[in-house]
């Protein structure tokens, strides 16, 4: 005798029954998650009819591909990924949409109700550090075990509101830092260098234990007998200012000069904004050193200490 479906029946149990051909189980999954899928679709599409179409397509795709659900993530996360892909597919097929640059997207407009969707923003040619200088994702807050995005802060000028829009989509959908790359990186409209994408990858690395972060407010109280500050910037950058007590080994010399670094102290690595110090941390970790990457590196430390110092 088949066990009756109740509100207490878990998603995993419903999925197993749906895989076995129980359409009532899939109907319960649809009822349970329809509002969340629609909310995400509405956030991305901004039109009710489009959001309804995406929602319908999402559940149809889920039913057709139910055997592909392996339970590595929650059913809700799996479903919302399908929804985001369905929405992006519709967006990319639309014709006659004007592609705008990030700079143009950040300019004042008489049409205050229109905000270009991130997918409609053209690629650009700056380096990651140049991008961070203009559009800085300041902080992502996610659950330590699941990576679910709980909050975000951003500072900068041009295009910051567009990036907050992407982050808000992830928050609204209850998605994780792993989903950021899928939403922010969509060639040729979105660049792999986008700060949202970079922030998502950095969070993934922390979640996977590949790199551990250090925060700017730890620096002043570090015990020099247990910690070492390592600056991996270029000499011309260091000449403009550096963290007190730090030693200098440019990134391209780290492998050759490892013998200068102590193995009995934890190394806090920093550069200008965090990318080169990330690479240095990976190199050091692979060679048996204990290291952490200073979040935001010199730029964040300088801004925070200057502000607090008055």
Short description:
This protein has 310 residues and is of the alpha/beta class. The protein has 12 helices and 7 strands.
CATH architecture of the largest domain: 3-Layer(aba) Sandwich
Largest beta sheet: what is the strand line-up? 3-7-6-4-5
Global outline: elongated
Helix content class: 40-55%
Question: What's the CATH H-level superfamily name of the largest domain?
Answer: Rhodanese-like domain
Summarize the biggest pleated sheet.
5 strands, parallel
Mean pLDDT: 76
CA gyration radius, whole angstroms: 23 Å
Which structural class should the secondary elements be placed in?
alpha/beta
What is the CATH domain class of the largest domain? Alpha Beta
- Total number of strands: 7
Domain tally: 3
CATH topology of the largest domain: Oxidized Rhodanese, domain 1
Q: Which band does the percent of strand residues land in?
A: 5-15%
């Amino acid at each position: 005798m088949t066990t009756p479906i109740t509100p207490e029946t878990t998603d995993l149990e419903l999925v197993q029954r749906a895989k076995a051909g129980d359409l009532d189980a899939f109907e319960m999954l649809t009822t349970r998650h329809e509002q969340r899928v629609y909310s995400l679709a509405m956030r991305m599409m901004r039109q009710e009819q489009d959001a309804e179409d995406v929602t319908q397509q999402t559940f149809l795709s889920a039913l057709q591909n139910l055997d592909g659900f392996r339970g590595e993530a929650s059913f809700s996360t799996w479903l919302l990924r399908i929804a985001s892909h369905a929405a992006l597919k519709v967006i990319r097929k639309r014709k006659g949409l004007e592609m705008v640059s990030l700079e143009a997207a950040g300019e004042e407009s008489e049409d205050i109700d229109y905000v270009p969707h991130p997918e409609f923003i053209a690629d650009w040619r700056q380096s990651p550090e140049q991008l961070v200088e203009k559009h800085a994702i300041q902080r992502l807050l996610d659950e330590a075990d699941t990576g679910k995005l709980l909050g975000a802060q951003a500072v900068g000028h041009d295009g910051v509101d567009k990036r907050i829009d992407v982050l808000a989509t992830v928050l609204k959908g209850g998605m994780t830092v792993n989903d950021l790359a899928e939403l922010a990186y969509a060639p040729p409209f979105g660049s792999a260098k986008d700060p949202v994408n970079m922030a998502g990858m950095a969070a993934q690395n922390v979640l996977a234990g590949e790199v551990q972060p250090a925060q700017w407010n730890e620096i002043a109280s570090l015990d020099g007998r247990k910690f070492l500050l390592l600056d991996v910037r270029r000499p011309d950058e260091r000449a403009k200012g550096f963290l007190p007590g730090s030693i200098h080994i440019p990134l391209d010399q780290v492998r050759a000069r490892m013998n200068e670094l102590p193995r009995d102290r934890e190394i806090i690595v920093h550069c200008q904004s965090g990318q080169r110090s990330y690479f240095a941390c990976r190199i050091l970790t692979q060679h048996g050193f204990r290291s952490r990457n200073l979040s935001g590196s010199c730029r964040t430390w300088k801004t925070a200490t200057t502000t607090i110092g008055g």
